Amino acid sequence: MSGENLAFEHTLLNNAVDGAGSLYVITAQPLAPHDAQLGILRFTKHRHTYTQETYSDPFPNLSTCVFGADLPVACSLPNDIVFDDDGTAYVTDSFQTTIWRVPPGGGAPQVWLQSSLLAGGGDLPIGVNGIRLGPEGKYVYFCVTFSASDPSRGTIYRLPLVKHPSEIDIEQFHEYDQGEGPDGFAFGTSGRLYVTLAGSNEISVLAPDGTEITRVANTSSSTILLDAPANVAFDNRSKSLLITNHALFSGNTAHFAVLKVFVGDTAEPLATPVLP
């Protein structure tokens, strides 16, 4: 990928696809100079190659940064992305208690929601993290991995999909404790929500009312263990989950893998707008 400043930590996070099949990738270089940031990149296929272009401006430093607002470097950690049907992109910022919106066609990120509920705490202060639109597109669901008020707790929240949401509209959908660390998630056509738990190395399965139905956990027959699973998507053909193993806490490179688990469900379709 061109444009990254290799003198600093650099990473690709989550991605989304539009109606034309172009790929949108979140980039981040925390603690690098702000002018080293790349924002969201778009990759468009042309026969056997892809062209890279900048889709959004870098995500700016805000006073809500968990490391302090006066840093001379970039503090933002844009983490997950989802489109709505109109082509607006919603991006979580795990270090700045913020969900951004990027207008259809790209450009400057705009603050869509800020709340102290989105703040992270503890040794790894990951706040707002995974984000998806719920079935029928009426609500935005997002999670906080390690709460600032109690880092042992993590929560799935939801609020109405409107242009100008209010903090008072945030509803708790499900809460985890004991440092289980909800991260990424995906809806099935069944209405169930499949949530990766990076802290407990499991997949939590929630009913449409937010109650937990079951968990997918490691077994003695697992060839590669679930190890800080980070995100999840569906393989509709096999009615299975595809799970990215982060191995963040163990650092075990043998666990860097995409795992497949049968759940008998298929994906609730994501919005794939046609974008300029």
Shape: globular
Total strands: the figure is: 19
Counting DSSP H or I runs of 4 or more residues, the number of helices is: 0
The strand line-up of the biggest sheet is 1-2-3-4
Average pLDDT metric: 93
Ends distance: 22 Å
* Sheet/helix structural class: mainly beta
Helix content: under 10%
Unreliable spans: none
Name the assembly state.
single chain
Q: What is the CA-based Rg, rounded?
A: 18 Å
**Largest β sheet strand count, sense and barrel closure:** 4 strands, antiparallel
What is the percentage of strand-forming residues? Answer: 35-45%
| Strand and helix order | EEEEEEEEEEEEEEEEEEE
Task: Briefly characterize the structure.
By secondary structure, this protein is mainly beta.
Task: Summarize the helices and strands and which ones pair or pack.
Blueprint: E1 11-17, E2 23-28, E3 40-46, E4 49-54, E5 78-83, E6 89-93, E7 98-102, E8 110-114, E9 128-133, E10 139-144, E11 154-160, E12 171-176, E13 182-187, E14 193-197, E15 202-206, E16 212-216, E17 229-235, E18 240-245, E19 258-262
Antiparallel strand pairs: 1-2, 2-3, 3-4, 5-6, 6-7, 7-8, 9-10, 10-11, 11-12, 13-14, 14-15, 15-16, 17-18, 18-19
Would you give an account of this structure?
By secondary structure, the protein is mostly beta strands. The chain has no helices and 19 strands. The protein is 0% helix and 40% strand. The strands form 5 sheets. The protein has a 4-stranded antiparallel sheet with strand order 1-2-3-4, with no helix packed on it. Strands 5-6-7-8 form a 4-stranded antiparallel sheet, with no helix packed on it. It has a 4-stranded antiparallel sheet with strand order 9-10-11-12, with no helix packed on it. It is globular, with a radius of gyration of 18 Å.
